[in-house]
Amino acid sequence: MALDLKKISKAIAGGIAATAAGSGTAFVVIPTGVGVPSWAYAAVPLVNFIIGFAVVYWAPANKPANP
Known about the structure:
This protein is an all-alpha fold.
């Protein structure tokens, strides 16, 4: 069974948008002087991507309006 990217392209776009919008989250949320491992700065955009992907992927599909 091959993965069809056309079926999840909207979710991928949502994940990328969430990553782009929240890329500075780690620098805003983590206060100065707090010791944080370097991998945490990489984990924050990844978590943003997963949240954005999941929200768009499981959102109900748009349906045409009834006139």
